[in-house]
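Design job #97: recover the sequence.
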């Protein structure tokens, strides 16, 4: 069973920064082949893919609205523990929403594409609220 635990959300003023973390652990699955995605869902809107990183960490995707402001990364502690980060700078009110991390072995990531079908992600975190407001 894969466990994803997110942290780092909160209230920040426009122009501020937050770093979201997603701790991924499992005692029986090798995470080296899992892609990781970050999604967000604003109130009354559909969930959208914000950023993704491939299994080896060398290919990253960003939705246009966050390019140049958000940075995704992952750190491998061992083949069964990974931590994914979403560094968010120059935050805007439209970045407000619940942010989720998700992982799966079938996730495809390219510089211009990320898998957005939620059914392709086997595991999801519980979500963390990000509110950008003055």
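Job complete. Output follows.
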């Amino acid at each position: 069973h894969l466990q994803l635990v997110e942290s780092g959300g909160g209230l920040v003023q426009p122009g501020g920064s937050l770093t979201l973390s997603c701790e991924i652990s499992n005692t029986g699955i090798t995470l080296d082949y899992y892609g990781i995605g970050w999604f967000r869902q604003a109130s009354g809107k559909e969930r959208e893919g914000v950023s993704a990183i491939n299994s080896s960490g060398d290919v990253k995707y960003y939705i246009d609205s966050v390019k140049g402001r958000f940075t995704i990364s992952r750190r491998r502690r061992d083949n069964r523990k990974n931590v994914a980060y979403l560094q968010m700078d120059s935050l805007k009110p439209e970045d407000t929403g619940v942010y989720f991390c998700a992982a799966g072995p079938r996730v495809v990531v390219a510089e211009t594409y990320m898998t957005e079908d939620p059914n392709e992600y086997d595991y999801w975190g519980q979500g963390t609220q990000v509110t950008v407001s003055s």
